[in-house]
Amino acid sequence: MPPDHLSATFSALADPTRRAILARLASGDACVKELIEPFEISAPAITKHLKVLERAGLITRGRAAQWRPCKLEAQPLQEVHDWIDQYRKFWEASLDRLEDYLRALQAGDGAKAAAEPEIRKPAKAVKRRTSKTVVKK
């Protein structure tokens, strides 16, 4: 996946109208006219939203006679899910370690709690006489 593809997907998902269009397409293919109905915006505005979704790979638009059916494409959403899942695993592991640490403290097992790694404090920004900000560790 090109590095910019994930950014394009998140950018497309940032707009509530586009998310609503995707939610509608999750229940099945729809033509542009059907997608316009629930919104109080013009057809050209919906078309612009559809183009953004199409460029991000979230939908495909076909042609059947005079109809332009739109179809949801799940692959970019799966890529977003996989990317987010990495961070979910990180936070779950971090919270599990915190839970173990708190249980050790509550059980009065000071030796086990003391053996846990020290939590690092955030770096402090220090202003010096120059115009640069220096970060202390």
Question: Which short descriptors sum up this protein?
Answer:
57% helix; 5 strands; single chain; alpha+beta; Arc Repressor Mutant, subunit A; 6 helices; 137 residues; two-stranded antiparallel ribbon; 3-stranded antiparallel β-sheet
Structure description:
It contains 6 helices and 5 strands. With 137 residues, the chain is α+β, with helices and mostly antiparallel strands. It has 2 domains: 3-73, Winged helix-like DNA-binding domain superfamily/Winged helix DNA-binding domain (Arc Repressor Mutant, subunit A), CATH 1.10.10.10; 78-136, no CATH class. α1 runs antiparallel to α4 (43-55) and α1 crosses α5. The radius of gyration is 25 Å and the shape is elongated.
Briefly summarize what is shown:
The chain is an alpha+beta fold and 137 residues long. The protein is 57% helix and 12% strand.
Task: Please write out the topology.
Layout (H helix, E strand, L loop, with lengths): L2 H11 L2 H11 L3 E2 H5 L6 H13 L3 E3 L7 E4 L2 H32 L3 H6 L8 E4 L5 E4 L1
Antiparallel strand pairs: 1-3, 2-3, 4-5
Number of domains: 2
Q: How is the largest sheet built, in terms of strand order?
A: 1-3-2
- How many β strands by DSSP? 5
What structural category characterises the helix and strand content? alpha+beta
Number of helices: 6
User: What's the level 1 CATH class of the largest domain?
Assistant: Mainly Alpha
| Oligomer description | single chain
User: By CATH's scheme, which homologous superfamily of the largest domain applies?
Assistant: Winged helix-like DNA-binding domain superfamily/Winged helix DNA-binding domain
Average pLDDT number: 83
Biggest β-sheet strands, sense, barrel: 3 strands, antiparallel
Indicate the radius of gyration in whole angstroms: 25 Å
Distance between the termini: 36 Å
Q: Indicate the proportion of strand residues.
A: 5-15%
